[in-house]
Design goal:
By secondary structure, the chain is mainly alpha-helical. About 55% of the residues lie in helices and about 0% in strands. The protein is built from six helices and no strands. The relative contact order is 0.05. The N terminus is likely disordered.
Length: about 170
């Protein structure tokens, strides 16, 4: 199926494919993502929690060795070496949380989830069973309404000039 997709959307001749912009990640973001992926795959390798914590401490020490690196060329080399090592040592079947994309129950119960506006139609006796929740919810809705009104006033206050009015 992937092969069909590649053949179907391959650019032919002089036509160009529209490409989505790839977000630029800063060096710090790349390091943080590598650290998190490494820890998640380490959890898959180390089933017992005590062994995982020991290995996680060692891994954190390896990351902390280079955290104050001022030379960006060296920092990028260390990061690329770390990413290459991660690709070699990643788990073949990493643990995926059930509710995460690719998990066994991802988006399973969306049909049973109800929108928030349905709570507006609850009977007062039903609302009385959850007083703290509805108190916080009412505060949250009040803040959202005030913010919306503020944004609308700002939009109405801005004067838009018609750049084409001067064109004859």
């Amino acid at each position: 199926m992937i092969y069909w997709y590649v053949l179907r959307f391959r650019p032919s001749g002089g036509t160009k494919m529209a490409s989505s912009p790839v977000p630029y990640l800063s060096h710090a973001q790349r390091v943080c993502r590598l650290y998190k992926r490494s820890m998640r795959h380490l959890e898959s390798w180390c089933v017992h929690r005590d062994k995982f914590r020991y290995q996680a401490t060692l891994m954190r020490a390896r990351f902390d060795e280079h955290k104050d690196e001022k030379d960006m060329v060296k920092a990028v080399k260390v990061l690329k070496a770390g990413e290459a090592e991660f690709l070699q040592r990643q788990h073949p079947q990493p643990y995926i949380f059930p509710d995460s994309p690719g998990g066994t129950s991802y988006e399973r119960y969306l049909a049973y989830q109800h929108p928030d506006w349905l709570l507006n139609f609850w009977h007062p006796e039903e609302r009385a069973q959850y007083p703290e929740y509805f108190k916080k919810r009412d505060q949250r809705l009040r803040v959202i309404k005030e913010q919306w009104k503020k944004e609308q006033k700002e939009k109405q206050a801005t004067k838009y000039t018609d750049d084409l009015a001067d064109v004859k």
